[in-house]
Design a protein that fits this description.
Layout: H1 6-24, H2 30-34, E1 39-43, E2 46-50, H3 63-66, E3 68-72, H4 76-88, E4 92-96, H5 99-105, E5 113-117, H6 125-135, E6 141-145, H7 149-157, E7 167-169, H8 174-186
Parallel strand pairs: 3-4, 3-5, 5-6, 6-7
Antiparallel strand pairs: 1-2
């Protein structure tokens, strides 16, 4: 097992993220952020990247800090960047790169919001959401895609879905993603 000192991870993360925002504005080369700050763990026999950051700030917990988000994107760099960004804003985030793995471990009521990429291998985000809805009728969802044609398919597949306005187009600035997530969770 490889590990990085969490204090080092926390102090370097904000400095790197700030530098990236200044240099690129949004969506930098993700690997440069993650490659030096990862902790590999073995969870249920599956190797995944745990990028959680422990905070030593003496701030009080808010409702935002307790909200749980599930991120599913087949690109590990994107899902981990979303995870790091949302966690730095106080959310509890689980990220997965395989929709089938999500289905095998999903528990109803475990998440306040699902952020699902649409184009993924094995199963697209729409199919994943339909299967999750069988287990969890109250799951809120926000679909993410770089392809505009999926928006039309989304409207056809879910005409009565109250989250119909929740369709995020990639690339999205991380600050905008956080604002959208907070807006959805407060509704």
């Amino acid at each position: 097992m490889y590990s990085v000192n969490r204090e080092s991870l926390e102090s370097n993360f904000r400095a790197k993220l700030n530098g990236i925002f200044q240099d690129y504005g949004f969506f930098p080369p993700y690997l440069s952020i993650l490659s030096s700050n990862i902790i590999l763990s073995n969870h249920s026999g599956v190797r995944r990247i745990d990028t959680s950051i422990s905070s030593k700030n003496n701030r009080t917990a808010t409702t935002t800090e307790k909200r749980r988000i599930l991120v599913v994107d087949d690109d590990p760099d994107i899902s981990n960047l979303y995870k790091l960004s949302l966690e730095s804003d106080g959310f509890i985030v689980s990220s997965f790169n395989d929709p089938l793995l999500v289905l095998s471990s999903y528990k109803a009521g475990a998440y306040d919001l699902l952020l699902l990429d649409i184009k993924m291998p094995h199963m697209n985000g729409f199919e994943l959401y339909q299967r999750i809805r069988h287990a969890d009728k109250h799951a809120k969802v926000c679909f993410i895609s770089a392809f505009e044609e999926y928006h039309t398919e989304f409207e056809k597949s879910f005409p009565n879905l109250k989250e119909a306005d929740c369709f995020i187009r990639k690339p999205i600035e991380l600050e905008s993603l956080t604002k959208k997530v907070k807006s959805l969770l407060s509704a």
